[in-house]
Amino acid sequence: MELRHLRYFSVVAEELHFNRASERLNIAQPPLSQSIRQLETELGVLLFNRTRRRVELTPAGALFLDEARKVLAQVSHATQAVREIERGERGSIRLGVIYSAVYSLIPPVLRLLAQRYPHLMVNVQEMTIAEQVQQLGRKGIDVGVLRLPVLDDNIATQTIFEEGLLAMVPADHPLATRRTVQLRELAAFPFILSGSGPCRNLRYEVLNTFERRGIPVDSKREVPDMHTLVGLVAAGLGVSIVPHSVSAAKMVNIVYLPIADEMPRLAVALAWHKKMSSPALTKLTEAVMDPSVLAQLGELSRRAPWTPSVVGKLTG
Q: Rounded CA gap, 186 and 217, in Å?
């Protein structure tokens, strides 16, 4: 028994007419009739009652039609599924993401992927930059979203966007009502830094900015991740400087302020191991770089510096 036998049988059963079925299948009637007879011989049952005037399904034929349709549907589904995998439209991809991107970049990307490729599952896990680099090397994740630079020759990167920095202060802080704030003013208060482990990109940029301007930051506290930093600032234990995208989290008891001094911009990028090749990675990259996603990021970047009281006091 071959799949063509099931297809031929299903069409004849739907048409109940060998001439119409042969036209629909684009084959001559004699080979079609022969295929049906071969199928009946193999099954050992009659599938059709044939007379000069009509063709009818036998009870066995009616049951076999239901089963044949299930088989053909499953074959069609399997064929479509493997083609989608080959195109990167089905399967799963493990994505490591820095804290700020969870609230800014990832929502529009996942929304776009779900609309375009509903069978592509993206498993998101929040990770520090150091954790992402480590897991990319161990193939614990397929791709990461992190801040540059990445000091590992085995990791390939593609910049997604660049973002500026904002001051983060408690909502009841003396600076919270200001429209802008200067670095020297921030340095006068207890300062909290994120990134005390490897790949301390943000920590380096912040401290280097103070150093270039000759502004000492004596009273500083270092924490391992952005979650802890945000929690300590919200608790009123200090101030900090964070990427614009962190403001998308809309944490309660926190105010974000534009910094009057000229500040560096941080590059956020996709990262993957150079030996990693996957059609799904291509689809993810296309979604991340889609104009609609970047437009939403641009809108966030334009709004964040000018709404400190609104962004800071909304609950998440």
A: 9
